[in-house]
Structure formats: C-alpha cells, structure tokens
Specification:
The chain is α/β, with parallel strands linked by helices and 286 residues long. It has ten helices and ten strands. The chain has a single domain, classed as P-loop containing nucleotide triphosphate hydrolases (Rossmann fold, 3-Layer(aba) Sandwich). A ten-stranded mixed β-sheet has the order 5-4-1-2-10-9-3-8-7-6, sandwiched between helices. The longest helix is centred in the last third of the chain and has 14 residues. The protein is globular.
C-alpha cells in the first residue's frame, strides 16, 4: 500500500524545531491586580506585639488563605483589613494597609465606610435575632440603600446559594436554620450591602463536612465577583479553594507572629521555599 502523502513541516527561520506553534502555547495569565498592599504592618495589643513586619499584596478576584498555628496573628491580621481592630481599645496598627491606593488608617478615612466595602464573616454563625428577611434587609436599611428591598433580599440569598432552602419561610426566625444555613445567611447579609471584598475568619470551623463543602463551593463561585481573604486551620480547605496562601508562624524567641512565606497555593503545598512551611503543611509540626 502506498504511503499517505503528508505536507512537509513548516520551516521557520531562526526558530528552534522544538518551539511550539503559537496556537499550542498556553494563554498567558492575566496580570494580578493588587487590591490590598500591606507595608510593614505591625499589630500590637497595648505594648505587646501580636504580629510584626507583614508585607503582602492581595489580588482582586482571588481567594487568599492565611494559615498557621494558633496564636500566630492570622485573625488579628485579617481584622486589620476592615479596621475591626479599632473596636478593641488596646489594639494599635502600625505601617500601612493600602486599599485601592488609599491608606485605610489615614485620618480622613471613615471606618464605617471601610466595613461596608470590606465585609466580614466570622467563625461562628451570628445571625441577628430577627427573621431571615430582616437579617438581610438590616444592612441596606441602615445604609439607606435605594431599590426594591424584596429584590435586594432575594438577590443576596441567591448569591449565597441559600434562597431555594429558605424562600418559603423568609419571615421565620433565623435561629431556626441549620448551622450551615446560618453561615450562608451571614454571607448573604454581607453581600446585601454590595461589598468589594469578603473576609472570612475560619467560616467552616463549626460546620459539618457537607455544610463545609457548600461554603467552599460558594467561595469559588463568589470569587468571580469578589476578592476573598480566608483564615483557616484546615490545610485541605486552603489547598482546595485558595489561589494564594500566606503561612504565618510564631517566633519562638519573642512569641510574635510573623509571615514566613507567601506564594501561589500550589507552590506552598508542593514546593515551599522555607522548611518551616513544609513542616507545617505536611503535618510534622502545628
């Protein structure tokens, strides 16, 4: 049988034969756009430093995980991002927390406006002792947001993937919801005021695996529209959902939290540059 006729390979002057064609090359990643820049951030309670010398950029439309042992300053640091530490009389923040080019701790910055733009979901679900509807409507009403309130409530609950479960009982007390539903309600309450960033401080620590899976799926969906920063002790969770991971530890000499390494999540979990990171993510310490 005659051999099939094939076209001769294209000859490209000056290009090595192993160079792939343009169409075969992977699409270049879009450049990361920093939404936060932390410059030399220290947080102190009275005269005692809790976390020191933090320098990180946090990107838009990414999930950034903060991991590390208890007491290393993860929760303290995440509360700096929306000035929640202002509510602790002894807390003091040094350095610069820059958000969209604005120093959040500048004298002219309104902390209430900061918390509207940068919402927070806490470790334990904390619905108000009100109806499901009134939990969601509370923030928009306080802020005087315009628009149809029924639509605002429905949209927030849909975004939080809990609408189908509660749409027939919006006027019932939120305390009648399951723990996982309450946490998604709290996320919906955060979304109702149209934030730019969502901070999550161990949002799944009190939840069962099924509810945790729903929250993780929700985070991956919300990442399309929001930037998310999450504190977690669950290494598998950080590996599953985050784009970048920051590992903190406690300095054994002065017992102060310090940032050890910050990189793409895959790198942190498969090829970290610091042996302390490797020891922690592999479970040797922590």
């Amino acid at each position: 049988m005659a051999e099939p006729v094939t076209e001769p390979p294209e000859i490209r002057v000056g290009v090595p034969e192993h160079t792939p064609a343009e169409s075969a090359r992977p699409e270049p990643k879009a450049p990361r756009q920093a939404i936060f820049k932390l410059e030399g951030v220290n947080v102190l309670y009275g005269d005692k430093p809790a976390v020191r010398d933090v320098e990180v950029d946090i990107a838009r439309n990414e999930i950034t995980a903060l991991i590390g042992p208890s007491g290393c300053g993860k929760s303290t640091l995440i509360r700096c991002l929306n000035r929640m530490n202002d509510l602790i009389p002894t807390a003091r923040v040094e350095g610069r927390v820059v958000y969209h080019g604005q120093d959040l701790y500048a004298p002219e910055v309104d902390a209430v406006e900061v918390r509207k733009r940068i919402g927070m979901v806490f470790q334990k679900p904390n619905p108000f002792p009100k109806s499901i509807y009134d939990n969601i409507a509370f923030g928009p009403r306080v802020l005087g947001m315009k628009g149809d309130m029924d639509e605002i409530v429905e949209q927030a609950l849909r975004h939080a993937a809990v609408w189908d479960e509660v749409k027939d009982r919006l006027k019932t007390n939120a305390f009648g919801m399951s723990g996982g539903q309450q946490q998604r309600l709290c996320i919906a309450r955060c979304l109702a005021v149209e934030p730019d960033v969502i901070l999550m401080d161990e949002p799944c620590s009190a939840l069962d695996p099924i509810s945790t899976g729903k929250i993780e799926d929700l985070m991956l969906e919300l990442r399309k529209e929001y930037s998310i920063v999450i504190v977690t002790h669950n290494m598998q969770q950080a590996a599953r959902v985050s784009d970048r991971t920051a590992f903190f530890t406690v300095d054994p000499e002065d017992r102060v939290g310090r940032l050890v390494e910050y990189d793409d999540t895959e790198t942190i979990f498969t090829n970290p540059s610091d042996p302390r990171t490797e020891a922690y993510v592999t479970g040797k310490v922590g």
